[in-house]
Write a structure and sequence with these properties.
5 helices; 0% strand
Length: 134
């Protein structure tokens, strides 16, 4: 949900076509993944949040206050960190998860998340963002 919200924000605020393109990919791909996750959660009667948690809300507020190059770099940096964390979580679920449906979901979205991470690393490298490669 945060990737979609932050992607929409970046589509609006960024003036860099590469950042806007990346943000559009985040909105499209994460919306599709969210639909899969919502279906999985619904079939297992697991409630999902309908608002951002405090950490993601704080990130969004911080990004809303930025503009120009500062916005682009901060947005890219948040995407690097988020996608690194998500790859780790998905790989952990695939290797040691107990729920077959959750493991299947993780396996289905991991390639896309890895693609996003590589795209974020490329953007970060081009923008001079620290820690562009892990």
């Amino acid at each position: 949900m945060a990737e979609v919200d932050l992607g929409k924000l970046a589509e609006q605020k960024s003036t860099d076509p590469k950042v806007q393109e990346f943000a559009a990919m985040m909105v499209k791909d994460h919306s599709a993944a969210n639909e899969k996750l919502e279906s999985l959660a619904s079939s297992n009667r697991i409630p999902l949040p309908d608002t951002l948690d405090a950490s993601h809300e704080e990130t969004k507020t911080r990004l809303e206050a930025l503009s120009g190059d500062g916005f682009n770099k901060s947005y890219i940096e948040t995407q690097l960190k988020a996608h690194e964390k998500t790859v780790d979580l998905l790989e952990k679920e695939i290797s040691s998860g107990q729920d077959a449906d959750a493991k299947a979901f993780a396996q289905s979205v991991l390639p896309t998340v890895k693609h996003h991470l590589e795209a974020a690393r490329t953007l970060a490298s081009e923008a001079g963002v620290k820690n562009a490669s892990r």
